[in-house]
Structures are given as C-alpha cells and as structure tokens.
Design a protein that fits this description.
This protein has about 200 residues and is of the alpha/beta class. The chain folds into two domains: about 50 residues, Helicase, Ruva Protein, domain 3 (Orthogonal Bundle), CATH 1.10.8.420; about 100 residues, Dna Topoisomerase Vi A Subunit, Chain: A, domain 2. Helices cover about 45% and strands about 15% of the residues. It has eight helices and six strands, in the order αααββαβαβαβαβα. Strands 4-3-5-6 form a four-stranded parallel β-sheet. Strand 3, helix 5 and strand 4 form a beta-alpha-beta unit. The radius of gyration is 21 Å and the shape is globular. The N and C termini lie far apart (about 70 Å).
C-alpha cells in the first residue's frame, strides 16, 4: 500500500539515496521541502541544478571549482613546488582552515579500497603523476586519512613517485591537543613518537 502521493514518495526516495540519510530522515526532509514557500523550493532546486552544471574539477589539482582553474592554483603567492595530496575536496577546506599550509593541492577523489571496488585507476593518481613529471614540484605531502585505505593509498603513490627523485612526506599523526595519554591507543602513541620534534 502506498502511503504518500507518488510525487512525495519520489522525493523521499531521492533524499534516501543521499549518504547517511535513512528512511525517517528522508521523510522529514521531504515534508520540510513541501512546507517551504514555492519560491524557496525553487531556489533550492535551482541551487542543486546550478551546482551540477557549473561545478567541475580543476584541470590542475582536481579540486572542485566553477572557474576554468581554481583560485588556489591561480594564486601566484602560493608555493607551487609543494603539493599536498588529499582524498576529498572537503580535506582541502580542513587544511586551509589551519592557515599553516601555503602550497597547492591535489585531490584524489577517493582512496584505494578493494572492499569497495575502488582501484588506483578509479582515483586521480595519473593526473598527479603527470603534474610531478613536469619537473616543477619538489615535495609531495601525503595527507590521506590514517586508516587502512588512506595508508595503502599513500604507500602506493609513494612507490610511484620514488623514481622521480622528489621529496615525499607524510603528515605526522599523534595525540590530539587537549586529550590524555591514558586514552590513546597504541598506534596513535606510536605515530606520536615517530612524529616528535625538537622543542
């Protein structure tokens, strides 16, 4: 038995396809959209369509942009010889919030994950190798997550870059600021020791 009109059910189904959205949340979102004034609903729909039409990958770094080349790649004040490799566009935002990195980025759009059927050919590794082969890059910083897939991706890319004779580094991981040692796991403590520095 169908509980909702077909158009409403279709809207619920579309929301339910979004990551992290279950059936009940999809229903709440669909009902919220129905309660919006028509102008607001149209603006919402137009924003989705505009994003799909206008946002694309930067041909240099693969980050998302609505320009020919993204603002970071266009910025002459940044160090274009240092590239920070991240898994997703949202990771660029996290790095930029720190205000500590003045290089440029390369976005992989995923990590190698055999369980999820993602191979090295499914992410933007070839594009990274093309950038490095031009000879203007001195250091590549691997900033993928410190989980199994992130580590495997970082090691795979490192092996590919080794013959190119550039510096390849990995972000240091360790004890978060404000936490206590007794709650840290063995891997985190090990990484904290490896990434220690002079005071």
């Amino acid at each position: 038995m169908q509980y909702f009109p077909a158009a409403l059910q279709s809207l619920v189904d579309q929301f339910a396809r979004l990551p992290g959205i279950g059936g009940k949340t999809a229903q709440r979102l669909a009902f919220h959209v129905l309660e919006l004034p028509l102008e607001d609903a149209e603006r919402f729909a137009d924003a989705i369509l505009a994003a799909k039409r206008e946002v694309h990958c930067c041909p240099v770094c693969q980050n998302l942009t609505d320009r020919e080349v993204c603002p970071i790649c266009e910025d002459d004040m940044r160090d274009h010889s240092t590239v920070c490799v991240v898994a997703e566009p949202k990771d660029v935002i996290a790095m930029e919030r720190s205000r500590e990195f003045n290089g440029v980025y390369h976005v992989l759009h995923g990590v190698i994950s055999p369980l999820n059927h993602v191979s090295q050919d499914d992410i933007k590794i070839r594009e990274l190798l093309g950038r490095v082969s031009k000879g203007q890059i001195r250091e590549v910083i691997m900033a993928t997550n410190p989980d199994t897939e992130g580590e495997a991706t970082a090691m795979y890319i490192c092996r590919l870059l080794r013959p190119m004779e550039i510096r390849v580094t990995r972000l240091a991981y360790g004890i978060p600021v404000g936490s206590q040692l007794e709650y840290a796991d063995e891997v985190t403590l090990s990484r904290a020791l490896e990434g220690r520095r002079e005071l």
